[in-house]
Amino acid sequence: MSYLVTGGAGFIGSYVVRGLLKKEENVVVYDLTPEENSIQQILTKQELNQIVMIKGDVVDIIQLMNIIKEYEVKKIIHLAYLLIPDSNRNPSLAVKVNCQGFNNVLEAARVLELKKVVWASSAAVFGPPEYYTDEYLADDAPHHPVSVYGACKSLNEYMASYYFDKFKVDNVGLRFTAVYGLGRIRGASAFATELIEKPALGKPAKVPCGDDTIDWQYVEDASKAILLAIKSKKTKTRIFNTRGDLRSIKEAAKYIQRLIPGADVTLKPGKFGIIWKYKTRRIEQELGFKPEYSMEKGIKKTVNILRQKADLPLI
Q1: 178-180 and 171-176 beta bridge pairing
Q2: For 203-232, what is each residue's pLDDT tens digit?
Q3: Within 10 Å of residue 242's Cβ, how many Cβ atoms?
Q4: Does the reported pTM lie above 0.85?
Q5: H-assigned helices in 168-218
Q6: How confident is the model over 24-46, as pLDDT tens digits?
Q7: Is 72 helix (H, G, I), strand (E, B) or coil?
Q8: Helices (H), the chain
């Protein structure tokens, strides 16, 4: 049996692929830009040689289904999306990739009778705090997306439930928050790359949305949630909230400056515009997921990986 990871050469996908390899699974990576992506810096040469890497587009359902059949794929981890801000810049492409691409995965799973699909939703389906009466949002809280990306994810959540109810396609969606770590090169969470990577290498950082308090989710925690979900039996809940460490960007900047004395960090004013507080009882009970990384632990690990790669002393 093989696992297909769409978008597997990207940021979160690279860590998921590494996790599957550690479990000695057969992995097929299906990605539009495999040569110019995060996987080249996350996986070792030995690990890269263990996977099948295929250049492909999730919008092309014929190629997708042919790959599934050729490599005897039984489970899909779907992580191929056009992120923020690219989705806002090109809404038509966003709908094509994020919605049609996801629906192609569900349709392939239906037609080819796959065992499970695990896919990445996002906290971007939610809106500003003033839309909600509860301080912490439950898994079934109403959506009020403020971005094209968030709106696409909201439609995906509906389609995932529809395919489960109508066609019995077993699938699990995970609402990720601000995922950060080595390899983040695009998306809304790329602000963390600016905040962490540049000071780690002695460069000045100018960080947007400096007035916000966000949920910091280290990439290895996000990967762990996916691996728990893909190995799970059929769950009662279709879409799970996830969480990391709820902390302000100002706290993170101060920690960076303590960690790296003299770090030049400028916080620009502003907020992301969504609520960042989520209930996670269901994912804890049904999948056994709890985050392992505090903001400090995740930032320090990222800083030291970067400094090791640059032949700088560890902190």
Answers
A1: unpaired
A2: 999 999 999 999 999 999 999 999 999 999
A3: 27
A4: yes
A5: 190-200
A6: 999 999 999 988 889 999 999 99
A7: coil
A8: 11-22, 39-42, 45-50, 61-70, 86-89, 91-94, 101-111, 148-167, 190-200, 219-231, 249-259, 281-286, 295-309
